[in-house]
Amino acid sequence: MAEAYILINCEIGSEEDVITALKAIDGIKEVHGTFGAYDILAKIESSQVEDLRETITWKIRKIDKIRSTLTLMGIEGQS
Questions:
Q1: Which of 5, 28, 72, 78 has the fewest CB atoms found within 10 Å of its own CB?
Q2: InterPro entries given for it (predicted)?
Q3: Which residues pair with 66 in a beta bridge?
Q4: What average pLDDT is seen over the chain?
């Protein structure tokens, strides 16, 4: 199972809208608003790493009001 954690910066005041949009994406397992340098933390899982890349690039990063993301890919066997 491939997994990634995505740290997200969004426009001020748009956190709830972005969280709602993220929850509608297949493969998103968790979404949390956060304090600090990033506004939102999302966890995504898939059976294939390529599916993660596609979802992150073409679905998550295209959500209106997301300004930037930082993706942390999990290392299989180290969980």
A1: 78
A2: Dimeric_a/b-barrel, Tscrpt_reg_AsnC/Lrp_C
A3: 10
A4: 96
Q: Scanning the structure block, which residue is given the tokens 């930037």?
A: 68
**Number of domains the chain is built from:** 1
Residue 79: inside a domain = no
Q: Indicate the SS3 state at residue 28.
A: strand
* Helix, strand counts (H, E) of the chain: 2, 4
In whole angstroms, give the CA distance from residue 35 to residue 74.
22
Report yes or no on 78 lying in a domain. no
Q: Which of 3-7, 55-59, 65-69, 75-79 has the lowest mean pLDDT?
A: 75-79
